[in-house]
Automatic annotation (TrEMBL), chain A:
It is a multi-pass membrane protein. GO terms for cellular component: plasma membrane. One of its GO terms (molecular function) is ABC-type phosphonate transporter activity. It comes from Phyllobacterium bourgognense. Residues 247-431 form the ABC transmembrane type-1 domain. It comes from the Bacteria. It holds the Pfam family BPD_transp_1. This is Phosphonate transport system permease protein. It is found in: Cell membrane. The chain crosses the membrane at residues 28-48, 251-277, 298-322, 413-434. The keyword Transmembrane helix applies. Belongs to the binding-protein-dependent transport system permease family.
From TrEMBL, chain B:
It is found in: Cell membrane. This is Phosphonate transport system permease protein. NCBIfam families: PhnE. One of its GO terms (molecular function) is ABC-type phosphonate transporter activity. The chain crosses the membrane at residues 29-49, 123-143, 164-182, 285-305. InterPro entries: MetI-like (IPR000515), MetI-like_sf (IPR035906), PhnE/PtxC (IPR005769).
Amino acid sequence: MNAISSAAIADFESRYPAVFNPPIWKRFMPLMIGGGIIFYMLYCWWFFSIGTVLASGQWQRAELYARDWVSYAIRTTIRMSPTAMTVSYPRFSELGDNPKPDWMVQAGNNVTVLFGSGKSLDINDQRVIATRGDESLTVLIEADGAKPQGTMPKWATLKEDQVTVDFGFAGQADIIPERVVVSRRFLGWANFVFDTSSPFWNRSFGEVASLIISGERIKPEMSNAALAFNNIWYNSSWQHGDVWTKLMQTIVMAFIGTLLASLVAFPLAFIAARNIMPNFFANQVTKRFFDFLRSVDMLIWALFFTRAFGPGPLAGISAIFFTDTGTLGKVYSETLENIDDKQREGVKSVGASPMNVQRYGVVPQVLPVFASQALYFWESNTRSATIIGAVGAGGIGLKLWEAMRTNTNWHNVAYMVVLILAVIFIFDSISNALRSRLMGKQQH
Amino acid sequence: MSRAISTELSLDGIQIERHWQELAGRRRAYSWLISICLLATVAGSLWFANESNAGKFFDRLPHFFDFAGDLIPRDGWEVWRALFDLPSPYFDGSLKYDYPEGRVYLFGGFYVPEYFYKMLETLNIAILSTLVGFIFGFLLCFLAARNLVKNRLIRWVVRRYMEILRAFPEIVIAGFFAAILSLGPIPAMFAVGIHTIGALGKLFFEVVENADMKADEGLRAVGANWFERVGFGIVPQVMPNFMSYALLRLEINVRASTIIGAVGGGGIGEELRLSIGRGHQAKTLAIVLLLLATIIAVDQFSAWLRRRLVGNQAFAFGGKLS
């Protein structure tokens, strides 16, 4: 490879002055854009006081909340006494009315709590021994507080008269004079199918199946299958019935809203397209009407209709219908303005009526495109419907938002998110499949 | 509905005609079947929606017009007073007419009207989250493009990651961060921004995959490393398209941040929800007017800039992407 001589370089420079010596503003353009972006970010940092908010955020909670998505904790209190140790569970515990978990071993006046993989608590009325792997900590219980003996391992903390022992994901225990409060965490969703008040609770799948198929009636007024369905539908902690009804509302909102919007936008688009309706005034009125519907945001429509119809899917349907009549109308009229005129001319030349010119000269060209666009919006509206639901326009949005605001029901949030993601995934696939059949593989 | 087959046709002709009629008949039957199914679904869905709504459609319809009538302010100037925080002659100590209360004083007697300030907040949420989404989407997209990264695992991981960011409902991200940071504009920013990373990242890597690889080949021939190839071969070609998509996303994000605002993210959305809920006509109209003007302005600006950047091709789907 030859190096370029300086004469050749000079020659290049003189031939392409714009490349080698651009004007100053062009040379510093990237720097100015970068500086502008940094300046804007600093301004936002100040405007929203992002630093203060991020610093005062309770980030340790993030991990706890994230953990609650896929696991549940059981809290128990062990009261110490020289004669009889008592283990008590809260009312409405996940373990039912009479819990006998196998991780809680009671022998004489000694209680052992097993946290799995070498972690345990050994409790009697004078001391608690916490073991984690090869380390262990003995805490003596005295009248004025819990007294840890020897050096404290990293996983234990002393705060005034109370010792907290951390076993990681498996749980933790607070050792307080006279009692130990244990929180034991398990992976999974507790009582997902039947809640503790159900007669089917805590039975294996086989048992439930055999009860439903051939068992004696548990409640005389209904069959076991109906009872089982009832118990699942009205599960008190998961509320399957309510969640599924609300999910159905969201789906219906997106479906009906988009369908009605495309049905109304279809004829209006013919009026708005300037090559089909030669009347300038009619074109402009329809187009500005579309712009108005589109620009008054879906949120504004949702709030209006929630106020007018009361909270529920009707408000959501109307909001999606109004916004998307505008958007689809705009898209449709643009498609119509770009059609091939030859087909229309052909139909016109054989003396067809104006209606028939549209029917046979225009509609066959645009129908697949229209349908494909409507499907695209249907898919996108399934997402939007979740969000506008949160302002009261029906569907699962509000339930999701309320579950999050309680800060304790993150497992319900996870359940609803999984359902929403599944619905979005299914509709995405349906809409993609239909669209590629309508338009051919390349075009969508 | 088979028509009589003309006797003038030859034997072959008759057969073809019969086949055609059979086909047409089958198609007609399918069309009918699909129409009936669709109609039944629509009727069922409408019934279900009406049944599970708090108010029934026909019961509420007259009230709807009442409500629309309620929105008419007491006089034409009231809307402007609400918009610019001027004192109202109807002020009676209630929240309905306390327009000057919301003034945000910058210095001396100079103030920004409340709704303009809130609108600015919403706009800033949208712009900042678009910017953050653009930066991260830009950094990620090259790793997901087939023509730049040969390692399948990296591509798969990056693509799935972006898919998760995109598919996760914005409202859940907002709620999660609201639980940590308390309600306000920052959780809204997280929600909109995270969604934007996924959405833009996907569009970006598709653009990169369609890029002309000749420039890249040239750079490879002179021994450029991966970063130089991307920086000098790919980025200059794709940047106009990237900018165009980012502007499109900005339009969407202005709307999204208004909506997230209404559920507790602050900004103009929250003001609108409160004002409609309390029945303050003039305030509601002022906010709607301001929102309408802002959205139209942002849309027009973005459309103008996109036309300059990439010509008309960016207008294929009317600007709705998710």
